[in-house]
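Quick note —
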Amino acid sequence: MCCKLKSLLIFFSVFLSLFVEQAHAGFSLGSTRLVVLSQDTQVLKVLNHGDIAFAMQAWAETESGDNPGHALVVSPSFAKLAGDSSLDLKVMSLSGGGDMEQLYYLNVQEIPPKAKKDHNGVRGNQVAFAIRTKIKVFVRTEALQEQRRHAEKAVTVSLSEDGKQLHINNPTPFYFTIDTASLGGNMLPVSKTGLVPPMAKEAIDIGANALVYEEVEINFIDDYGAKRLYRYAIQ
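Predicted structure written out below.
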């Protein structure tokens, strides 16, 4: 009984320490995605909602996790935020761009402070986690920016030969992100990223259900993180 009680007390001590650390952690970003023009800078607000100071580490990466070099530069890459404060993170593209939009990822990671020492110089048994937030960053030229508004209208939807998939065809130079897709009010399974790359297509399964509808509804996420509903005739 004593052993069980001791184990229970240890469990609750660890749980309480975890809860306290998570309660202090409170980074959030001012946007769920960024659009950066070539040879330009965009500012992302990083906010510390907690009551204690946290260190922040930020870096950019390609879709495969590599360093994008001058294509996307983040400054500062490391900083300390006091409790209840914010920081302007500068995200710059130093590349000349191209004829198609480029996709990168921005990582912002919290680095929690070390547990304080007691009067004997011993640190407490607190459990802390470095929480990372990752968002998409789209880099495009100014000329592409002028073409971006309602570019989703150019999308076409076709039925696969076996009738089990819908192909979302993207003939534009932009990345599109599908939030939801539905057929006759029935939700369709969308991939985890929902991404439809430029000049490419994304397949969505419609299962064994017979296709009796002529139109599909797709919610795309725009540059500002808002959902935009489009309806497409199935070809």
